[in-house]
UniProtKB/TrEMBL annotation, chain A:
<keyword id="KW-0963">Cytoplasm</keyword>
<feature type="binding site">
    <location>
        <position position="181"/>
    </location>
    <ligand>
        <name>substrate</name>
    </ligand>
</feature>
<dbReference type="InterPro" id="IPR043129">
    <property type="entry name" value="ATPase_NBD"/>
</dbReference>
<keyword id="KW-0819">tRNA processing</keyword>
<feature type="binding site">
    <location>
        <position position="293"/>
    </location>
    <ligand>
        <name>a divalent metal cation</name>
    </ligand>
</feature>
<keyword id="KW-0808">Transferase</keyword>
<protein>
    <recommendedName>
        <fullName>N(6)-L-threonylcarbamoyladenine synthase</fullName>
        <ecNumber>2.3.1.234</ecNumber>
    </recommendedName>
</protein>
<feature type="binding site">
    <location>
        <position position="177"/>
    </location>
    <ligand>
        <name>substrate</name>
    </ligand>
</feature>
<dbReference type="InterPro" id="IPR034680">
    <property type="entry name" value="Kae1_archaea_euk"/>
</dbReference>
Automatic annotation (TrEMBL), chain B:
<comment type="similarity">
    <text>Belongs to the CTAG/PCC1 family.</text>
</comment>
<protein>
    <submittedName>
        <fullName>EKC/KEOPS complex subunit LAGE3-like</fullName>
    </submittedName>
</protein>
<dbReference type="InterPro" id="IPR015419">
    <property type="entry name" value="CTAG/Pcc1"/>
</dbReference>
<dbReference type="Pfam" id="PF09341">
    <property type="entry name" value="Pcc1"/>
</dbReference>
Amino acid sequence: MTIVIGFEGSANKIGVGIVRDGAVLSNPRRTYITPPGQGRFSVETAKHHRACVLSVLKEALLQAGIQPADIDCVAFTKGPGMGGSVVAVAIVARTVAQLWKKPLLGVNHCIGHIEMGRLITGAANPTVLDCVETQRGVISYSERRYRIFGEAIDIAVGNCLDRFARVIKISNDPSPGYNIEQMAKKGSQFVELPYTVKGMDVSFSGILSYTEEMAHKMLGAGECTPEDLCFSLQETLFSMLVEVTERAMAHCGSREVLIVGGVGCNLLQEMMEVMCQERGAKLFATDERFCIDNGAMIAQAGWEMFRSGHVTSLEDSWVTQRFRTDEVEVTWRD
Amino acid sequence: MAAPHSETLHFKTVGSVFLFSNRLAQIAHGSLSPDAEPRKGGISKELRVTDNNLNVFWCAEEARILRVSVGSFLDHLALVLETMQAFGPSETQ
């Protein structure tokens, strides 16, 4: 029996989760929500995480019904993520690991999403569309690495959605992407927006600058409604992601797709399902408990890594804002 | 007379935190030393443990840079101490 506790705080969610041999024992989380029109200020987000990490930790232990002595390993997000936030959570992880005399394990945030996706859905060897807010790409496992087949070359799809939401002052509660999706359902007119796929890669900065420039003009002139813009943005962004995912599947001969990450809810899943049906492939996706950043995904990746022999010394437990998914040697898969 | 070049100025400060035991001082050191300063250049920080004390030595090119680093360190130190109080041995509670 192996019990791992995982700490996640790389973006605006702070979560602590506990897993035991494939079962999620607890997974509490708090989200820092900014007013409409504002992004996530790094300093404020870090302050939020510092203020609530210990109570989330206590909640995780209580809900799981375990004591620190029962824990085998303390996992935490080493990166990528927002500097101050990642550091704050890592500091708590390091402190409890030393207090409880347990090994420490730094986990790549995206691998956390992938391993939780694999656990929850049971997908064997899927092409993974990683829609984590700070990373983004199409990933496939090959020879001990999660290889990046294609990626967003400028900003992540989540960043693009968040910044678009700020342009037209959509609420950040519960999340900009969710609110864009609700508004998109009421959109009726498709507005042509830049569609930029470059081979296996996608580019979102063009569509974002276009909407930043044109949104107010078009809305002011009554050419379209904010709902139409939301609808058009989603259709364009998600079509780009479906295209590169399909290309990766064709390249790898894959018949499974797994969507992970906070953007990977609802409409993107629907669009991906259409493509999968056309190809005779299966789509796997998780619900918002696990597709949005959470502590249990870090614990799950930590569980896999720990059982295959990974640990992180204190000296090597420094955090980083840039940590590519393909930098980690995946020793826990064949 | 020309003003002294900013690169020749060194703002230094030293901090010392008393913990209840050498073990706790080592734990604080372990939690606070791994991360590099976010700013590349213009600031250096070193942590050392002596008995029950965690000693911190800063050296910065500008007072503003020093202030940011010290402020950030104190926030993180507070978090370590709170964690020790919540989950540490009984003498910290």
